[in-house]
């Protein structure tokens, strides 16, 4: 079951860590004062979404964990990461426009955010696929 076991605990704990880091950044202005902090947050968020993909949807692709099928899984997992990243950018845009709270940067900033989301998702997806191949079984069974 998805909501049992250590993998679910990892997902919840890592989400809470990312959420706390995000809230601290908003409160203390780290997004403005630490120029690489936004990049870190998008990398962590993309990695978390990549992990979430394999946690929630990985069992549907269990037969695809073989190394010959990695390309297909990477495309699907990175599509999932991209979709969530775009939704996050819509959220930032909405908050900026509706409430005047500056979350949305320029177009190059948005494109950079989406790229780093993908990079984080790629790193985590490749790690999961590599570990599952080494163990010769599905890692997210």
Describe what this molecule looks like in 3D.
This protein has one domain (about 5-135). It has five helices and no strands. The protein has helices at about 5-30, 30-35, 35-55, 70-100, 105-135. Helix 3 packs across helix 4, helix 3 (about 35-55) packs across helix 5 (about 105-135) and helix 4 packs antiparallel against helix 5.
- How many alpha or pi helices? 5
From the spread of the alpha carbons, the general shape counts as elongated
List unreliable stretches of 5+ residues: none
Span of the ends, CA to CA = 9 Å
**How are helices and strands ordered from N to C?**
HHHHH
SS-based class? mainly alpha
Q: If you compute it from the alpha carbons, what radius of gyration comes out, rounded to the nearest whole angstrom?
A: 16 Å
Largest sheet, described in full? Answer: none
Tell me the total number of β-strands: 0
Instruction: Note the beta-strand portion.
Output: under 5%
Estimated helix fraction? over 70%
Mean pLDDT: 87
Tally of discrete structural domains:
1
Any chance you could write out the topology, listing elements then pairs?
Layout: H1 6-28, H2 30-33, H3 37-56, H4 70-99, H5 107-135
